[in-house]
Amino acid sequence: MNFSLIYRGPLKTQQSADPRHKHFIRRQFELQLSVMWKSVPFVNQIGEMRQRWQNPADASIKPITLIEKLARDNVRGKFRFVPLVNRFFGLACSLKVSILRREEPGENFGGDIDNRFKVLVDALKVPDINDLRAIEPDPDEDPDPFFCLLEDDALLTDFQVKSGRLLLPYDYPMSHKIIVDSANQLYERMRHGESIPDRDAWDREFDLEISRQCERRRSENEIWMVVHVTLLAANPAAEGFHLDFIY
Fold first, then answer.
1. pTM for the whole structure
2. pLDDT tens track for 73-104
3. Across all residues in the chain, what is the average pLDDT?
4. How distant, in Å, are the alpha carbons of 11, 47, 99, 192 from that of 152?
5. 184 and 66: one domain?
6. C-alpha neighbours within 13 Å on the C-beta side of residue 174
7. Coil, strand, or helix at residue 34?
8. Do 161 and 175 share a domain, yes or no?
9. Shared-domain flag, residues 72 and 24
C-alpha cells in the first residue's frame, strides 16, 4: 500500500526544533491520516473490528474497536495515539521525502537536510512523553484519539530525501499565521494612534506588512514537503496482520 502525506510550513533543525514545532507538524499529518482511517474501506473496516479488552481496574472484559485498543496502548500524558505502522499489525514502512524550498541550488538551507529529517521522523511517530509535557491538548487541533504514522522509528526500514527548488517568491503568504500576524500588527499600529484613512491605504499597508513578516521569517522559510509512504510486511505472523496493507 502506498500513499502520500503533505506538509507546508517551517522545518527546523534538530537543535532548534522544540516540542511545539514538532507537534505543529504532527497535527498536519494527523488530519490526513484520520481521513485514511475513515475513508479507505479496508482500513476503516480493520479499525472498526472488535477486540476483547480486559479492564486492569476490575479485570472485566468488554469489546472495543481496534482503533480504541491502539489508542489505549499508546497513551502519552493527556494524548492517546493511534499509529498506522505498528507491531500489532506486523508492519514497517519506507519513506521517500521530497522537500521544496525557495533557496537557489547550492544555497545554504540553514542546516543540513539529514538533520531536519530527524525532526520529520519525530513528528511522524508516537512522541516521547517528555515531548508533550509543555503541550496542552487543543480540542480544535488535537482529536482523541490522535492518528500518527509510526509506533516508533525502529519500524522505519528505509528512507530517501530529495531537495528541490520551490518556485514561489519570498513574499508569498504561504501560512495563515503570516496573514494573521500582519493584520494584528496593523491593528496595534492603529491602537497606538496611527491613522489609516481608507480601504486602499489599508490594503497598501497590509501588503507591506506581509512583506515584512515574510522577511522576518527568511531564516526558517516555509517549505512544501511530500512524504511518500510504502507499507511493508515486517511480521506476517502478527495478530493484526492483513495482506491488504501491503497490496
1. 0.79
2. 999 989 999 999 999 999 999 999 999 887 76
3. 87
4. 20, 19, 23, 50
5. no
6. 21
7. helix
8. no
9. yes
